[in-house]
Design goal:
14% strand; single chain; Rossmann fold; alpha/beta
Length: 228
């Protein structure tokens, strides 16, 4: 069947970018995998036979680099149907306040929060050319305040202050951005691929149930449950 949908997947080395790219390829998407320097270097030597996506080195903290990514999309496909914001930084496990390096926290937020905003702002005109444009922001249960306050939740004692608070900020941003986009055809949603029933420590793998949920998400007409 003809491939006519285009997706951008962002990656920063957590292993999920290529996984998402390959799932999208199997579901009839053209894929641009935009990767940070280290991730780009690693992906460049991949021998996986599903390595049919277009790999683009991108600095998500740079307006210039993200604009160059936009131009690549324009010249290669002309429009964008799906933006999957997967790139992230995760550090600072168990750090106490006196151990925190504020500059490291700023750098983490620049990737996890501001990088997402930068991409959406820059690529919105290309998404508007799609019939059913979607944005999926990869989040984490560590950014869910209700879950983290529940002592029975498997991650409740994880003290990744910078990472968890950045994902909480991303969750709120996605919610508010959804309100802005609601009159338009662009839909936006958070998706947590590592919220497994059998809590696996620091896992970045996607179990079959989560994979099926993701496929259902990308193939739906809209990410907004109220959209018909």
């Amino acid at each position: 069947m003809k491939v006519n949908r285009t997706a951008v997947v962002t990656d920063s080395g957590n292993g999920l970018g290529r996984t998402f790219a390959n799932i999208l390829l199997k579901n009839r998407y053209n894929v641009i995998l935009a990767a940070t320097q280290d991730s780009f270097d690693n992906l460049s030597v991949e021998t996986d036979d599903l390595h049919k996506y277009k790999l683009v080195k991108t600095d998500f903290t740079s307006d210039k680099s993200v604009s160059e990514l936009r131009e690549t999309i324009v010249h290669t496909f002309g429009h964008l149907d799906l933006l999957l914001n997967n790139a992230e930084v995760a550090n600072g496990f168990g750090q106490k306040i006196e151990q925190i390096d504020i500059e490291e926290v700023k750098a983490l937020y620049d990737m996890n929060v501001f990088g997402v905003m930068r991409l959406i702002k820059t690529l919105k005109p290309l998404l508007e050319k799609s019939e059913e444009p979607k944005i999926i922001n990869i989040t984490s249960a560590l950014g869910d305040l209700n879950k983290m306050m529940d002592e029975s939740f498997c991650y409740s004692n994880y003290c990744m202050m910078a990472y968890a608070s950045s994902k909480a900020a991303l969750n709120m941003y996605t919610h508010l951005q959804g309100k802005e986009f609601s009159p338009s055809k662009i839909s936006i949603k958070n998706f947590d691929p590592v919220a497994l029933k059998n809590c696996t420590h620091n896992s970045v793998s996607i179990c079959e149930g989560v994979k099926e949920e993701f496929i259902s998400l990308i193939n739906s007409k809209s990410l907004n449950p109220d959209h018909h």
